[in-house]
Amino acid sequence: MPVIAPMPAPRTVRPPAQATSRESADEVMAAGTTVDHLTETYRAHYRSLLGLAALLLDDIASCEDVVQEAFIRVHSARSRVREPEKTLAYLRQTVVNLSRSALRRRILGLKLLSKPMPDMASAEEGAYDQLERDALIKAMRGLQRRQREVLVLRYFADMTEAQVAETLGISLGSVKAYGSRGIAALRVAMEATA
Questions:
Q1: Virtual torsion, Cα 14, 16, 19, 23, nearest 10 deg
Q2: What pTM was estimated for this model as a whole?
Q3: What was the pLDDT predicted at 8?
Q4: Which residue intervals make up region (Disordered) (predicted)?
Q5: pLDDT tens-digit profile of 77-91?
Q6: Higher per-residue confidence, 12 vs 176
Q7: Which CATH number applies to 134-186: 2.102.10.10, 1.10.10.10, 3.40.190.150, 3.20.20.150?
Q8: May I ask the CATH class of domain 21-114?
Q9: Hey, where are the domains in the chain?
């Protein structure tokens, strides 16, 4: 249970004609429930407030958090509790509201988690893919310039053979020849690294 130092005793109240605006605010603050009364109510009814939260939530840690948060909120708004006998009612209502909020957050979290996560490669697969890419780049560098150009345009830039021929200014037959020879050379180079 949190320990709260008692608030200093309120100042003496002057007649309204002599009161300043600062003192008027202090008088309003003193009109609500006192810290001592709130703390005693909290201590006396902690178990029942915990039980109330337990009816709405399913784990003890969340219940304790809700009850403590309720105390903190009522403590910070104690000036609004005009009648001290209603302090417990304020605490109970705050526990219920905070429990509802916690449940809403959980439901939202479950909705978000119920969507399937995209398939992601493991770290090992990512490292293996990187090694394969490195080996492929090394093998590509070992090809003749025209073979490399044809393969890059055809398979990495996703061009048709006719588009490759037009881009490089060579015949369609040359594109096919450079492509097949390049693939054969890549196959040999990749098998050698495996």
A1: 80
A2: 0.43
A3: 45
A4: 1-24
A5: 888 878 888 888 889
A6: 176
A7: 1.10.10.10
A8: mainly alpha
A9: 21-114, 134-186
